[in-house]
């Protein structure tokens, strides 16, 4: 623990990033048991009130407390991002390990499938899924998660290929270990730092993607608050209620900024040589 504390103290960027991320994660957790006001409560008398002691960040056109909505919106953004990146890791990493370990036609199939998915950005995938199943946070998770699969598959393959030429891997082959055991016991542990760093980057992109999907109306649906939808609802009221756009936008900026700082700090700590996968 002392070594970790010393590491954080010596890297101000990593410390700042971890602090921002921890702050929003804590905010999301607290929102399960407490919010400053009921996010679903409508208070006509307090509609479009500016920041005050009663409503710290003001209220929207229905009199709902903006700070409470941002707290619950953090829960939605983090959940969508974590599950979407989780899908990319759980499917993309095994595919990348398979491609690096087998080579030949299997590698070609995995890489060409990745190219096909890359041709459809998360927003396009979300629109296609929405057209069939309707809008919602789950469909946003699926769309963003599918887009993350080729990201991790290609990164894993690129980082794993050099490992397969190392002496200890050759020794494992000579000892009779099959490709699955070698990938699991020797390759994956050596590329794990690269995957951790990339996961933080993809988390920040997933937060932005979720906000974009909610902004156009195909992400999280009412009554669940969402940072992106809060921005969309504020665009006609910016001139006389600027806090409705400022605070949700600031929340997105600070959270994504924190994730990027965290990713850069982890890259310096875990991946000093900055291994870059073949893309």
UniProtKB/TrEMBL annotation:
Its main location: membrane. CDD domains: TM_PBP2. One of its GO terms (cellular component) is plasma membrane. Keywords: Cell membrane, Membrane, Transmembrane, Transmembrane helix, Transport. Residues 74-263 form the ABC transmembrane type-1 domain. It is found in: Cell membrane. The keyword Transmembrane helix applies. The chain crosses the membrane at residues 12-34, 76-101, 113-131, 137-156, 191-220, 240-262. One of its GO terms (biological process) is transmembrane transport. It is a multi-pass membrane protein. InterPro entries: BP-dependent_transpt_permease (IPR050366), MetI-like (IPR000515), MetI-like_sf (IPR035906). Belongs to the binding-protein-dependent transport system permease family. PANTHER family: OLIGOPEPTIDE TRANSPORT SYSTEM PERMEASE PROTEIN APPC, PEPTIDE ABC TRANSPORTER PERMEASE PROTEIN. This is Peptide ABC transporter permease.
């Amino acid at each position: 623990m002392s070594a970790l504390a010393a590491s954080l103290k010596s890297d101000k960027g990593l410390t700042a990033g971890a602090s921002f991320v921890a702050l929003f994660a804590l905010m999301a957790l607290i929102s399960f048991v407490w919010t400053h006001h009921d996010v679903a409560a409508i208070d006509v008398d307090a509609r479009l009130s500016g920041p005050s002691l009663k409503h710290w960040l003001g209220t929207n056109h229905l009199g709902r407390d903006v700070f409470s909505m941002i707290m619950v919106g953090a829960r939605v953004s983090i959940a969508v991002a974590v599950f979407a990146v989780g899908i990319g890791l759980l499917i993309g990493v095994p595919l990348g390990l398979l491609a690096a370990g087998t080579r030949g036609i299997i590698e070609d199939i995995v890489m060409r499938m990745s190219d096909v998915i890359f041709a459809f950005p998360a927003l396009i995938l979300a629109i296609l899924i929405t057209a069939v199943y309707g809008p919602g946070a789950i469909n946003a998770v699926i769309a963003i998660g599918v887009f993350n699969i080729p990201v991790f598959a290609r990164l894993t393959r690129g980082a794993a290929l050099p490992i397969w030429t190392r002496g200890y891997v050759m020794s494992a082959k000579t000892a009779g270990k099959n490709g699955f055991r070698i990938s699991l016991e020797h390759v994956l542990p050596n590329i794990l730092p690269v995957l951790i760093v990339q996961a933080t980057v993809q988390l920040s992109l997933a937060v932005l993607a979720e906000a974009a999907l909610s902004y156009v109306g195909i992400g999280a649906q009412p009554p669940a608050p969402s940072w992106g939808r809060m921005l969309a609802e504020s665009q006609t009221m910016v001139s006389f209620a600027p806090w409705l756009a400022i605070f949700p936008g600031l929340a997105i900026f600070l959270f994504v900024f924190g994730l990027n700082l965290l990713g850069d700090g982890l890259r310096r700590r875990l991946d000093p040589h900055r291994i870059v996968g073949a893309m």
